[in-house]
């Protein structure tokens, strides 16, 4: 009986193990780049970064068509089959536009928290990031870091002035990694409480960042009344106006009439202000033009028109 137990405990090496070298065994453990069908790759859940078929994307698609995807994406296998994209959403979109059926990817097993952190970090390296993208990215990464560390969620503690804790927190670590102050990270996260329509106005620079943070404390119905008023009056609140609305909301005294009266006040910096709707003039400029270039060209054309008009009057 004892002999049988000893014999059963001995693990015999397989034929592959006997004839494989240490180098081949190590190679089998290394991550490899595989060509994976695009149809088998799904997007990361609640991916906060927008993937648009804009001019930059079309240029990327042309590059993929000529040279292929030079930097492999990163995916993780799904329990029900297929793969989930962790890093490389823009490369996947460019591959689709280029007419490719597959995309080179590294396959890596990882849990939700590790995948979220890698997904956020890989996108935060981009040169241009919208406020909404940064807001949801910071929120997702901070929550993942807290879960990894076994810390409780502190969603209800996000504030304009941040939080003070006696020991190092996940938000302290995130601040060190991003180079943003902890208070600024919390201000960005507050933007996730805005209505999508108002958050889009922040991305379009129609509402300044700090007033938007204050607006995020308004209820959903109050924000909807505010959005409707901003659209009808073609204006947005200053920081002081947003702070007043936040205080009135907390006191239960904010309604659509109060919002209208606050927004239609004449602001010192809006006296003599002249507004032109963006959609009326954007079609005349190349997409690559900055706001400064647009302004310079408008002034240049007005000067030419003024000089011509003056010459005609002198005749």
From TrEMBL:
This is Chromosome partitioning protein, ParB family. Residues 34-124 form the ParB-like N-terminal domain. NCBIfam families: parB_part. GO terms for molecular function: DNA binding. GO terms for cellular component: chromosome. Pfam families: HTH_ParB, ParB_N. The keyword Cytoplasm does not apply. InterPro entries: Chromosome_partition/occlusion (IPR050336), HTH_ParB/Spo0J (IPR041468), ParB/RepB/Spo0J (IPR004437), ParB/Sulfiredoxin_sf (IPR036086), ParB_N (IPR003115). It comes from the Bacteria. Belongs to the ParB family. One of its GO terms (biological process) is chromosome segregation. The keyword Transmembrane helix does not apply. Keywords: Chromosome partition.
């Amino acid at each position: 009986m004892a002999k049988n137990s000893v014999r059963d405990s001995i693990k015999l090496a397989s034929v592959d193990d006997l004839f494989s070298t240490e180098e081949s065994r190590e190679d089998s453990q290394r991550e490899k780049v595989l060509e994976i069908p695009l149809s088998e790759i799904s997007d990361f859940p609640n991916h906060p970064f927008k993937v648009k078929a804009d001019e930059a994307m079309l240029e990327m698609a042309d590059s993929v068509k000529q040279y292929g995807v030079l930097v492999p994406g990163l995916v993780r296998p799904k329990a029900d089959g297929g793969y989930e994209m962790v890093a490389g959403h823009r490369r996947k979109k460019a591959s689709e536009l280029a007419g490719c059926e597959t995309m080179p990817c590294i396959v890596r097993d990882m849990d939700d928290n590790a995948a979220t952190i890698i997904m956020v970090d890989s996108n935060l390296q981009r040169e241009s990031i919208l406020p909404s993208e940064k807001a949801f990215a910071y929120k997702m990464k901070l929550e993942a870091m807290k879960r990894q560390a076994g810390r409780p969620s502190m969603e209800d503690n996000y504030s304009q002035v941040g939080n003070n804790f006696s020991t190092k927190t996940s938000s302290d670590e995130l601040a060190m990694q991003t180079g943003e102050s902890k208070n600024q990270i919390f201000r960005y996260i507050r933007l996730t409480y805005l209505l999508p329509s108002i958050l889009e106005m922040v991305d379009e620079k129609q509402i300044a960042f700090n007033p938007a943070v204050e607006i995020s404390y308004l209820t959903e119905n109050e924000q909807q009344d505010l959005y409707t008023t901003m659209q009808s009056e073609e204006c947005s609140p200053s920081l002081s106006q947003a702070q007043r609305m936040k205080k009135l909301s907390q006191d239960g005294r904010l309604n659509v009439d109060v919002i209208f009266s606050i927004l239609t006040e004449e602001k010192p910096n809006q006296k003599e202000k002249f507004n032109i709707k963006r959609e009326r003039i954007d079609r005349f400029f190349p997409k690559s033009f900055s706001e400064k270039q647009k302004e310079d060209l408008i002034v240049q054309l007005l000067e030419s028109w003024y000089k011509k008009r003056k010459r005609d009057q002198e005749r």
